[in-house]
Amino acid sequence: MISANNQRGNSDRRVSRPKEAEVVALWRRTTLFRSHFSDLGGAPVNILYPGRPNDARGADFKEALIRWNGQVRRGCIEIHTRASSWREHSHQRDPTYNNVVLHVVWEGDMDEETRRQDGAVVPTVVLGGGDVLRSSAEPLRLCQTDRGRLSGAQLRTAIAGLGDARLEAKAHEFRFQSQKWGSQQALYLGLLEALGYSRNREAFRDLGRLLPLKAVQERLSKSGSGEFTRRRLEAWLLGEAGFLSRCSSASARERRYRRRLERLWPLPGEGDRKFYPTWDLFKIRPANHPVRRILALSHLLWRFRRQGLLPGVLEVFGSAPETNFPSRLESALMVEASPYWRTHFDLDTISPKPLPHLLGRPRAREMVVNVVLPFALASVGEETDLASRTRRIFTAYPRLESNSLERHLLLQLNVDSDFANSARLQQGLIHLYRAFCCEGQCGVCPLSRSRL
Known about the structure:
- The structure is a single chain.
- The chain is an alpha+beta fold.
- Helices cover 44% and strands 11% of the residues.
- The strands form three sheets. Strands 1, 2, 3, 4, 5, 6 and 9 form a seven-stranded mixed beta sheet that branches. A two-stranded antiparallel sheet has the order 7-8. A two-stranded antiparallel sheet has the order 10-11.
- A hairpin with a 5-residue loop joins strand 7 and strand 8.
């Protein structure tokens, strides 16, 4: 048993207990100035990177990096007003919290260890004492960039270079995937990942492994006889993804639509799959629901069924003029919604607002920048005209929609929201975060004082 008498003594000073949101804000302010803490047992806890706010189900901060008991641990940080809230909220029985590596509280009111569902012990840091608000001898800033020596133009040049590095890294990964799976399957898996966003990326990759492109194309080759229509393709993809096996409590209209799909799936020998991708549907935006993205996939596969997905995409890529490239390729990937899917975000649920596209321009733009451009670069020689053309297009590509990761990096760098005014700069911010920030690599970051 761990004694928390000292921590309880601090809280017994009758400082008013803050709300949980205030503890979250306090933790964020504290880690601006301090990297070294102690857990309830007195063991040192070193914050290598405090993570970023989690906008999905689970702990408050994700992708944090800490050192505890001599080991570097990567994961989430959960914050409560009281240490006992961990058990009150049943986190010790919830596998979702098995990625938590640090428990931060205002008041240490619990003598027992904080344990996850998998049995692992999580260190607990208490913020209720006055010492925690004092600056450390080794301060931790949100970013170690020396803003006094790095002008706005220098920062933009450095981030643009990181954007180029991300493009090259993605191209390298596509070369590896093409050697492993073949070029067509590599492109297919890349597009599936882009359809899944961050929360359902792995689920879409699992779907791509369950239904490899070769198997889909073999089915599509039979479509000329009418045996395998586009609606049957929709039913097959939704069924193999697990969405037609779910119970429905919808109205008569939705039940009729579902039954039409169910009659088309399974085909003989199918429908007995024991494994389905695991989909994250918690607070998902209606337009991003996996069912809608799977239907968009079926339309793309049908659209490129004659020449094949890879030749079809590369044909559009090679023929579009550079001045009109974004619009041409984005339009080739966009999918309009049918009347039913303009009003529904999954098989059974009516959307609160109209949804005109299964795959709109913002997501098509993401797919071009994150998949098509690096794949095209991976598919040609390093010094070819097409490689140069790909890099020019990437350099001039318009900005994508903002996301929480970009906003987090802009806050870290203390720059305005209009700083990332191109896809190249946005990709650079992502590369900065992935390769340096959440890896605890401040000392070798291109923006760090030691590298200026």
